[in-house]
Specification:
Blueprint: E1 2-10, H1 27-39, E2 46-47, E3 56-66, H2 72-82, E4 87-94, E5 107-115, E6 127-128, H3 135-142, E7 168-177, E8 180-187, H4 194-206, H5 212-221, E9 236-242
Helix pairs in contact: 3-4, 3-5
Length: 249
């Protein structure tokens, strides 16, 4: 068997997340079906993580094993001819047989987009917030994420993970347009719903409904009920998954 990494982007609006599940269409399912048409055999993808329903990806990575070597450029071309318009493959790369899309990832980076004015052009991909929200204070609160590793307060309840520890290495709000801001966050791993819960809680800070010290207490108390509501999924994008270079052939 020969292992490959597949780099895929998608608009998550029509899908119930990345991971295959019963009675719901997912990105993984659609991509596996396209691969099976090309390879004429069953295919199983392993993703770098999972994205929730409605969440988008500029770069999801998954590994797959083929019974023979393939032409990577041709595989990209053929997959994109089969896949629907809201899913696109940008690259296919041969990797070591032991390479793992999830466990070998060094970090993942997400962007969350908000707008402070009504716009018909970004309404599907950005969360609208009221003008006057305090991004400077939200950035002071976001800096506290560097001081902690246990993010139970921002995790979906009753998940099957063994630990809620993550190492956040980058977390900042950046202005990218007259009325548009992006929250960039990078970590070695993320818990289910973690980014959306962090954003929802930071927005409470920005509205003056929670202090920076209150944000710290939310983290330290490790109670999901004390954090803010999860921000809408449609404004969240998985932007990048980083790997050590020595896994690529």
């Amino acid at each position: 068997m020969f292992r490959y990494f597949i780099y895929v982007s998608y608009d998550g609006a029509a899908y119930h997340g990345w991971q295959v599940q019963p009675n719901a269409v997912t990105v993984q399912q659609v991509l596996e079906e396209a691969l099976e048409k090309l390879m004429r055999s069953s295919v199983s993808l392993v993703g770098a993580g999972r994205t929730d329903a409605g969440v988008n990806a500029a770069c999801m990575v998954a590994h797959v094993d083929f019974p023979c070597e393939v032409d990577c450029a041709q595989m990209v071309y053929k997959l994109n001819r089969i896949l629907p318009p809201d899913i696109a493959v940008s690259d296919v790369r041969r990797v070591k047989d032991s390479a793992h899309a999830r466990f070998d990832a060094l970090s993942r980076r997400y962007n969350y987009r908000v707008v402070t004015a009504k716009s018909p052009f970004v309404r599907r991909y950005a969360c609208r917030v009221m003008p006057g929200i305090d991004f400077e204070t939200m950035n002071r609160a976001a800096e506290l994420l560097y001081e902690y590793t246990d993010f139970t307060s921002f995790s979906k309840l009753h998940t099957d993970v063994k630990t809620n520890n993550c190492k956040v290495t980058h977390a900042v709000w950046r202005k990218v347009g007259e009325h548009e801001w992006v929250f960039e966050i990078e970590a070695d791993r993320f818990l289910r719903n973690m980014v959306r819960a962090i954003v929802g809680t930071l927005l409470l800070v920005g509205r003056g409904k929670m202090s920076v010290e209150g944000f710290r207490q939310v983290i330290e108390n490790k109670a999901r009920g004390e954090a803010g509501d999860s921000a809408m999924g449609e404004a969240l994008f998985l932007m990048e998954v980083k790997y050590p270079q020595d896994i690529f052939l």
